Amino acid sequence: MKKLSYLLLLLVGVTLFLPGCWSRRDIELSGFVALAAIDATEGDEIELTVQFVITEALGPEGGGGGEGPPVWTISSKGKNIADAVNELRSSTGRVPIWSHTEAIIFGEELAKRGLAPVLDYMMRQRELRLTTWVMISDGSKAKDILETTPKITLLPSRYVRDLINLTSETSVSKTVRLIEFLRVVIDERGSQPWLPLVRVKSKEPVEGTQTGGGQGGEGTQEGEGKPEGEEKPEALVLEGMAVFQKDRMVGKLNDLETRGALFLRGEAERATVQVEVPGQGFVVQGATFARRSLRVRPDGDQVTARITVFEEGDIVEHSLPQVELNPQAIRELDQLLTATLEQEVNAAMAKLQELGTDVVGIGTRLYRLHPKVFHSLDWAQV
Predict the structure, then answer these.
(1) Which long-range contacts (CB under 8 A, 24 or more apart) does 157-163 make?
(2) Residue 206: its pLDDT value, please?
């Protein structure tokens, strides 16, 4: 009996040292952020827009059937991200949970000012995954992207995720994760980061609808002057890239310039290239393999870089009256394809030199092979 009593006392004593749920969060007071958008406002403030998932509206196993929309999109403003998050908690009664965030969209105006202030919060936020996708809103505020209501799925975040996963098959954009962007901004020598551009796909205006605010030429205000029953945008377009100098956006690449830059980086996947055949029509080639060879050679205060692009593909469409793939015809198509790709990569390089940013990685190769030469040069000027 004594041994049993001692054992019970020991077990009771051990429980006193067991940790409790000191950091617990009730699920009823948590808001799972699926998408987030950050915009610049007038002055030095920022606007944070998040999209909470409403699980009750998704129904059993996310299959729908609940009442109301499956997401709640709400904005808050503050001097910084932490301030905006505090306001968000006060207005929603929910603690934002970042572990399920699919993507973060930065507004173009904010990117031009510099992303360093908001990146600091993201690096310190333990719940936010560094594998979260990041992108730039093209031509509109980032929060407008969150207003998209796709027809193919209930959750806009799932639509954005699928759009990102299929982007590599077109080579008109390049998806970037938060950790990739941070690595180049903070640690990479000689190279500059870039982020994909996303925009709302606008519909053709309906004839006879009014978009103005009536007499006096005043613009349309929220809830006023819009056609009754106007729907929110249903589709997004991920096309082109925003290029940076460190954390500040300095310009954009269109779809063809982006594809040229991807060939120069050796990252073009399944690109579709149209080749014009003089006097006959066109041939569309779908790339199945592509890589690059990059060599740098310092010569005093100058640097020579030679990039060779290797590409193979299949004919996916043509408008030629007749196609005979004999050795001579293949050589002629190869020459036309070479000229087309050379034109694209030259246009991309010219645009990057105009913007003074190196997203191709030439400077990084120079730094790794000839660090003394790299440090002796002002690479942005070279």
Answers:
(1) 157/34, 157/35, 157/51, 157/53, 157/71, 157/102, 157/103, 158/102, 159/236, 160/35, 160/102, 160/103, 160/133, 160/236, 161/102, 161/103, 161/133, 163/236, 163/238
(2) 47
